[in-house]
Amino acid sequence: MASLVLTIRETLRYRGAVGQWSWVLHRATGLGVVFFLVLHVIDTSWSVFYPELYEKALTIYQHPLFTIGEFGLVFAVVYHAFNGLRIAIFDNKPELWQYQERAAYGVLGLTVVVLIPVFIGMAGHVVAHYNKGDAFVLPLLDVIVEQLPFLAGMVIAAIGAVVLSGLYGMVAGNEKATASAKLSGSPLERFWWSFMRVSGLLIVPLVLGHLAMVHVIQGVFDITVAGFTVVGTNLVNESGTATEFVAHRWNFLVGGVAVWKLYDIALLALVTVHGFNGLRYVLTDYTMQYPILRRASMYLCAIGALILLGVGGAALLGTIGPDAIAMATEARRAILAGG
After folding, report:
1. Which of 182, 224, 257, 288 is the most buried (most CB within 10 A)?
2. Residue 80 in contact with residue 114, Cβ under 8 Å?
3. Predicted TM-score (pTM) of this structure
4. Which among 2, 91, 79 has a CA at the least distance from the CA of 33?
């Protein structure tokens, strides 16, 4: 914690060039995307396992508070993607580092250029939703309370990782703090360095495509509107439930292949491993001098990634049948009726 506080304090005090702020912004946006990823994968899995909970989750995410967060999320994804490309290019072409400042400004400019039409499209969905006059909004207190289980789960996971790390240290003995520095040049770490760059290149078109379809073309409010054609398919969401929306996307076949299910499998695998490994980098940076916490950071990221891959994978391999859609329909009626 002392290292983290020092980094934040000195970052605010240091009047560095754009490179410093690019580094800070890259980490901040990456952390924001990982946090959203956890919520998104768990919630979407409910469309298969708990349709009623999924309908409530989507109702919560249509609250104005989350609408503001949606704009922030899109900014985080777009900036992180473009800046990640900049990092990958310069890492593979060190001779270009003399242009890094110019490139950093270029990333900011490109982000703004892309976000202007994207935000206009997203704002159009928001205005259309609230202009209907019958927009349903959960009370803010209910929205906050519904997020407490996620927060509690993260706290419990962090405590569990520290306890597990402590038990390992008692049995195997805590290595010296300097040992972690030696690992940076290990074959495994070199693999992860390469993986982050290669996976980043693969993720960019996948994640930007997903954002375009679900946040710009379709819009998160249209997911729960009956009569809309589900984006990327020729199927209509008859019930107006989020569960049927997911079912149509995952069950849509092109040449006998569930293209959007395969798309989401690739997105889940790449983003989860990339995101949690990035989180590992951040956490271990601030725990280098504390073997127990450094080890706990690695445990937390590894376990978190495995759980997310397991939950998301199980949902993607599952099916959403008529019974699930019927349950979702009843749940949505109850929510709108205040029941």
Report:
1. 224
2. no
3. 0.88
4. 79
